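Weekly sync notes, structure subgroup
Attendees: PM, AL, DS (notes)

Item 1: joint prediction request from the bench team. They want all two components modeled as one assembly rather than separately. Inputs as received:
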Amino acid sequence: MTISSLIATPSELTDSSSSKTAIVLMTRIRLARNITGHSFPGWAKPAQREAVFQMCSAAVGATPQMKRSLTVAVADLSELERQILVERHLISRELSGAKAGAGVVISREQAFSVMLNEEDHLRVQVLRSGFSLKKAWNAINELDSALEDRLDFAFSPTLGYLTACPTNVGTAMRASAMMHLPALVISNQMEKIVRAVNQLGMVVRGLFGEGSDASGSIFQISNQTTLGESEEDIIKRLGSVLQSIVEHELNARAKLIEADAGKLFDKIGRAFGILQNSHLLSSSEAMNLLSLIRLGVDLGAFPDANRAITDRLLIEAQPGHLQHAQKGEFDPAQRDVLRATRLRSEFANFTRPDFTVHQPEKN
Amino acid sequence: MANPLKCDLCSKPATVHLTQIVNNKVHKVDLCEACAQAKGVTDPSGFSLADLLLKASLNPEPATPAGVKCERCGCTQNDFKKHGRFGCPTCYDTFRGVIEPMLESMHHGTAHAGKVPTRALERKSLHDRLTKLELDLTEAVKTERYEDAARTRDEINQVKQAVNHPGSS
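Output from the run, pasted for the record:
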């Protein structure tokens, strides 16, 4: 498999037509693993990094899950290709700027990716569309066990899996969900939610992780602690936090409609108008407009099938994907023109919003 | 916290005072405006408290005598302080005294309760055993204890079989 054929194939996230993904767009779990007797990537010398890269990429490629996968060194990727992989959540921003000896193995259907020599020797990740923490855990647990047969992981009976940063030691697991929370944002409740979630030992971040903004009302919620609890317990706790956030979002939607339905429908209608008619759209504005259309789908103003289109556009409106589709590199001002053109043509065939059945979707 | 008016990260005067409850424990962090901005504390959409606590707890007087250096990778306590990252897995033993209190404030508990790589550990213990038996064999042959040597050889064969067919023994 080559990088260009991978990019040409829709990812797990751009193809959400098969799953019902209303508020939780995507579930992700990653495990950090290191090889015993080797320095962590940040401390290792170039030759040591290279040796670990060779050993790990061979082991990862030999697992059944990674049959016909793509293995590529970061150094061999163009700037644009790196950006596309970041936008698809297949590699982190940190890896995209990594030193020599770093790379990634991506499974054929793009559900699994294993980053090599990021902060840890291996960052094993699974992506699933929708809310499916348990399935994601079963999938990644199997891949991890397959890797365990081929690699000697650094493990301590008392501290668990040993990681470069002590904040990850133990299970070395970060489970997260990407959630679309427009009503909580509109009704100014996000700050309160973030505080409550923090107190429960969970973290809220923007779409692309640490330090990224939350345009499009999309947030990542994940566990903060990794030591002292089993993977299943962490997932159970996170699952119940996520469930309660879903309920808060649904309540906020119901309240917005009850308090002033016209105001909410006006927002959605205007978003539709701008997407159909604008000639300049920044990435962040496009995200916010698409988020409102997605909310409109959830509220029954647009056909259900349009949710998948909106989810695909949320990724395709990102700078990397946009430039790739246009086969070139463009400066931000040119991109805003291209983005608006692209969205105008997508929304030309979209049915107009119909608010007569303004019943919130039962989730 | 020696002086609450100083930033935990850079010791400039602190203007941002953060109190947060994580796992029923109260955590206080004092920061200057620049560090608060840099760490995203002023941005409600999220910052990593664990990361902050880690950096802040690195400053107080060390529990391990200064100048301790990891024998395997050469990482010193200062290196750890600077990067917040260890050099290699062995550092967890080397700097045990430093990280134990940190882990307590950072995590849900201090003992691993999750997955154990059973097959890998079994494989390692078999390899260790094999190495030891091979030494025994050489020793036995050298000192002409042929009965011991024969028994050791049988054992080596058994262990080798277990290595080739994991899980069957």
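Discussion: The radius of gyration of chain B is 25 Å.
Action: AL to compare against the crosslinking data before next sync.
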